[in-house]
Amino acid sequence: MFSKHKGFEFIATTSTLLEGVNIPAEKIFLLSIKKGRRHLTKSNFNNLTGRVCRFSEIFSSSGGHLGMLEPEIYLLNCKYSPKDFKPEVFLEKKAKVTANDKDEIKNILLKEPETKEEEIKELEALEYVENIEKGCINTEKNVKIRYVESDIAKYCFKNNIHEFNIHDYEKELVKRFEFIKEKGTINDVNTLLAAITKIFIEIIDLQTDKQKRSYYELLRLKNISAQNFYSFFLDWRMSGSSYSKMVSAILYYWRTKQEEEFNYKVYVGTAWGETKRDEADFVERYIDLSIKNKAQKINMAILKIKDEQDFVEFNILKFIEVLNDLGLLDENFYEKIKYGSADKNIICMLKNGISMELAKILNKAKYSKFLNLNLEKDNIIIDENIILVMEGNKENKILIFELSFHV
């Protein structure tokens, strides 16, 4: 009621409710600096004061204003306060109001370089920006910018490829791209991963050991077994597979690998690794399945899927984008990899923040009259009456709850 009705001017609450519920409040009056019998910690205090002037309220069309970027926090010395309460001391310790904080500037373009190393880093950053959008750099600095000439190098800059120096390897990129281009349009995951490996991964591998040390995960793609695994993973992505299907598939894959290779170990990376693959390894990056029970294997499968989804999203997809920008990928094939579907309606819904599970249901003929999709502008308007119809059809309640935020 406090959220919906302007007539309510104040709300009195315990710290429990205040920390757990977002309310559209612009000021906070702390009548006590205790939580239970203990004094508020610094993090408690920060959490409480962070409840007012929420970001969504600042930019709300129904009353938000930029003044809310400076919320008002009042600390009251009243009958609820401890007898020896000293507000100034509390604020100095908990809110750090007298602290002279200084931000560490990490972006080299926001400061003047002080060393030769910083000058080199600044030039590299300037070149990166200028090769993405020519004409952005102030040439008064008398900086000599190198420009790439080939399309593949330009698209590497555009898609944020940092794994190797694009200028140094431009000729190598062009040569490898032309070799792959002669093989024709790519429309299957095996060919795609082989192309990514040939053009990009093998170039990463040409660098010094120090340079490529950070790209161990990507360099695994040189192995056919790793390519086969990610072929499976991209196939699941293309079909928009559910988590349960992916977990079952992962468990089946591990079971077959164990049957082929008794001492088979699963690669999980340094975050979850418990053992080494062999004596040559320096770091524990593997899990020994032979000592895991069924429940542990299922948990590992869930973690593995999440990690691999992130790896594909942040490490492999940018190489796919480069190849697509170069016209090397079949359009339907690319859309299935990027969105999990080639259906234009579903893609439009995904772009508007609707989950794949909900998009598939909304795409059914029985709900079409409740949707107004503009595929040219990627806009969607949803009639609120769809909620009642979906409830009547006994659709998944979680998906109906999700839909309520989109109508």
Total number of distinct structural domains: 3
Radius of gyration (Å) = 28 Å
| First-residue to last-residue Cα separation | 22 Å
Annotation, overall tally of beta strands: 8
Largest sheet: 2 strands, parallel
Short structural summary:
It is built from 18 helices and eight strands.
Notes on the structure:
The protein has 407 residues and is mainly alpha-helical. It folds into three domains: 15-95, no CATH class; 167-340, no CATH class; 343-403, no CATH class. It contains 18 helices and eight strands. It has helices at residues 15-20, 42-49, 55-58, 87-95, 116-132, 151-158, 170-181, 189-204, 209-212, 216-219, 224-239, 243-260, 294-325, 331-339, 344-351, 356-362, 386-392, 397-403, and strands spanning 27-30, 34-35, 38-39, 72-75, 265-267, 286-288, 371-374, 379-382. The strands form four sheets. It has a two-stranded parallel sheet with strand order 1-4. It has a two-stranded antiparallel sheet with strand order 2-3. Helix 6 (151-158) packs across helix 13 (294-325) and helix 11 (224-239) crosses helix 14.
